[in-house]
Write a structure and sequence with these properties.
The chain is mostly beta strands and 175 residues long. The chain has one helix and eight strands. 25% of the residues are buried.
Length: 175
Amino acid sequence: MRAARWLSATSLAVAALAGGGREARADLFGLYAQGQAAAVSAAGPGVGLRAGAELMLFEAYLDRTEFFKGSSTTRIIGGLQASLPLGVVRLSARGGAGYVVDESGGLDGDTSHGTRSGLVARIGGAVEIPFSAIVSLGFTLEEEYFAVRDRDADTGTHTGTDALALLYLKLGVGF
């Protein structure tokens, strides 16, 4: 009897540590919204929102980040994403491309420009801790390459890269 209780308690502890309270899901379609804090970027720290949709391996999202120096970026991205549950965390990777609007140096910290827009390509990975079926906390590292033109003056195409470190709280539902 004592061995059975010990085995039950050990099984429950292992299941809890392995995320046994959350069932593995492979949603065909999902929607999410997240609030995020940018800890590292060329424009400095800031806060933002991201809203997106996932269809199997495909993802599309709208991302808006306001930096504390007064600059901002808005991105519309389409690409691929994948995630893997690993114990109590979920690892994910994504890559995609889209359109970006940079206001006052949101991409590179250069505030001498007004509004610029153009193409952007992004790649990144994240570690998420799911708290429930719809809420998770995560940390992501993303790298992006951009090619933008100034909307107010013909200064040619400006290209560059930026690395971002984001802490986020995500709400999502899957079907």
